[in-house]
């Protein structure tokens, strides 16, 4: 292997061969004990990671995702692997891969739906990003689990990422409690009821409104009194309808009684005439 490398060093054929030799030497250096010093000469970090803290918008029974960006500012092929202290709660895609020189790799971390809200949204979960230099032209299929093992003295750079749970944006809106938001600017809460335009306000001209307008009277009814007023109106309307029906029934009964009285008087008169005729016939017979 050393002879092969020396041939490339003393007889380079082009820029491509130089990159192969450089990557191969870096790979050999990472396999040798004390290779941490070699990596230190290469640069402060193999991969620049953004962000260093993963923030998830926490909602019960809903998934939440965030992104990680791996930036390779070096001229080497860098392999990475992502681990977490809670593998059942998170899914990382991709969790293993290679970042080519002068390129970036975007990862998506998904937190599974949770059934319990942590106290004060505190979370002790952590992520570990391992990275190491690999030979030029290495493919993702060439990676194996032993590549990120430190037992053989290989230099493995490790970066720990913290997890933070935050409330979703729509849950951060403060709700008015006992008029606590009355001190906020009117422009942030454009509620017409709480920000009336007065006629005496400087620079504001009120539109002419008729004093007898029924709409103006209705808009001045307090909201807490509207239900009771509506109930009273409904009750009075029902009472009027009931009275109207009762009056109609009384008038009908009175007409029936009057007709019955007339019938009784007529029958009594007919009875009297019949009695008189009977007496008259009796006297003629005698």
TrEMBL record:
Annotated MSP domain residues: 46-166
Family of this protein: Belongs to the VAMP-associated protein (VAP) (TC 9.B.17) family.
Example GO BP: endoplasmic reticulum-plasma membrane tethering
Gene3D superfamilies in the record: Immunoglobulins
One GO CC annotation: plasma membrane
PROSITE patterns: MSP
Residues spanning the signal sequence: 1-17
This protein's name: Vesicle-associated protein 2-2
InterPro entries (alphabetical): Ig-like_fold, MSP_dom, PapD-like_sf, VAP
Domain of life: Eukaryota
Pfam family, one: Motile_Sperm
Keywords: Signal
PANTHER family the record matches: OS01G0936800 PROTEIN, VESICLE-ASSOCIATED MEMBRANE PROTEIN-ASSOCIATED PROTEIN
Biased composition (Basic and acidic residues): 214-223
Region (Disordered) location: 202-236
């Amino acid at each position: 292997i050393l002879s092969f490398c020396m041939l490339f060093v003393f007889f380079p054929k082009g820029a491509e061969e130089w990159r192969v030799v450089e990557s191969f030497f870096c790979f050999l250096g990472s396999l040798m004990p004390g290779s941490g010093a070699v990596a230190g000469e290469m640069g402060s970090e193999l991969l620049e990671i953004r962000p260093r803290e993963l923030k998830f918008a926490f909602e019960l029974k809903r998934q939440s995702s965030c992104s990680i960006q791996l930036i390779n500012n070096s001229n080497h092929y860098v392999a990475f692997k992502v681990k977490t202290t809670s593998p059942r709660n998170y899914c990382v895609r991709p969790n293993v891969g290679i970042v080519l020189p002068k390129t970036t790799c975007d990862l998506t971390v998904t937190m599974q739906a949770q059934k319990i809200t942590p106290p004060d949204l505190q979370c002790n979960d952590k992520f570990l990003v391992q990275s190491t230099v690999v030979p030029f032209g290495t493919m993702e299929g060439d990676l194996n689990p032993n590549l990120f093992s430190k037992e053989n003295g290989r230099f493995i750079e490790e970066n720990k990422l913290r997890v933070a749970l935050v409330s979703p944006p729509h849950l951060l809106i403060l709700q008015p409690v006992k008029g606590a938001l009355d001190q906020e600017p009117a422009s942030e809460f454009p509620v017409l009821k709480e920000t009336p335009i007065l006629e005496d306000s400087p620079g504001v001209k009120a539109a002419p409104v008729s004093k007898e307008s029924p709409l103006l009277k209705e808009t001045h009814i307090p909201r807490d009194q509207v239900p009771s007023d509506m109930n009273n109106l409904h009750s009075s309307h029902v009472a009027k309808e009931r009275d109207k029906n009762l009056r109609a029934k009384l008038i009908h009964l009175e007409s029936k009684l009057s007709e019955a009285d007339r019938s009784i008087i007529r029958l009594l008169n007919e009875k009297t005439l019949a009695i008189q005729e009977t007496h008259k016939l009796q006297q003629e017979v005698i």
